[in-house]
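Standup notes, structure subgroup. Blocker cleared on the NAP input:
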Amino acid sequence: MERDSMNQTEQKSYALIDGRKISTDIKKEISEQVTLRKQAGKKVPHLAIILVGDDGASQTYVDHKVKACKEVGFHYSMLRFADTISEDKLMKHIDQVNRDEDVDGFIVQLPLPAHISVERITEKIRPDKDVDGFTNRNFGSIVSKQPLLLPATPFGVMELLKRYEIPTEGKNCVVVGASRLVGAPLSMMLVEEGKATVTICHKFTKDLAHFTRHADILIAAVGKPGLITAEMVKEGAVVIDVGTTRVEGPQYKNGYSLKGDVDFKEVAPKTSFITPVPGGVGPMTIASLLLNTLRATELRNL
Ligand code: NAP
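Run returned:
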């Protein structure tokens, strides 16, 4: 594995976890599966994407998802609605997609306008088409020993650890961030699948550094750039940065830059493995979405 060396007095090296490369590998594998399905006369997976409003960041994420579908040969469809759409009307559209036999998986791009309940909308999605893995059914299936469709970002993190052959069994994993979409399901997956000892930290954790310093594997999923500093990280730890915050400024191309929760420059030399932002967990979320869509198609025996 290629190691990046730092230009410091005390020369240290670490391995970069390249999410872009792993995601490209996964897309190639999926594309081969699509070819095999076509040859066998089976259905080509179809992902539908629901986008409400015209938020620039959401549009960018959706563009990446559409591009990924094209790359692997999936069918896709886009359903766009104005941000004035009522919750009831959106629910009716979700019902239609639930019933559409040609659609194998679909997602509702978040965030939604304030007058629409994310929880109600998410729960309306048929669990076997919920390729973001957001529904309570899929969240709960993590501990059921028969996971249905795993939450996409945590699934992507687990896949990165696996493909870099980073052992998790018996390791001290500290997850900073306990959200319903990332921190909480990821912690459960690290226990269930990873057989790790997991500590979950959140906004009310006292003395965060006390916990992070004991982590063999430290995962940050908060959304606060620079939260994790070098003195909070154990020498040789594996650091996974899920955080993705748009920081605006005239010095950046496009007017903004994506920042992780980890102070990469300072922290990287202390680690054995670390993910960059961008190019770490982000591409894996899309790869997981594609894997879930393929799985959803297979589960429906089409
Ligand atoms: P979220 O719903 O806002 O959750 C943030 C979590 O961090 C909460 O559990 C919160 O604690 C905790 N927290 C807040 N301040 C903290 C602090 N100072 N110390 C410790 N914990 C703190 O966000 P999310 O949806 O989980 O996303 C987290 C980050 O990951 C964001 O930057 C998001 O953009 C990014 N993300 C990236 C991807 C990707 O594909 N790369 C996908 C999803 C999310 P409480 O529970 O106590 O409020």
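Discussed briefly. Residues 257 and 280 are 15 Å apart (CA to CA).
Next: hand off to the docking folks.
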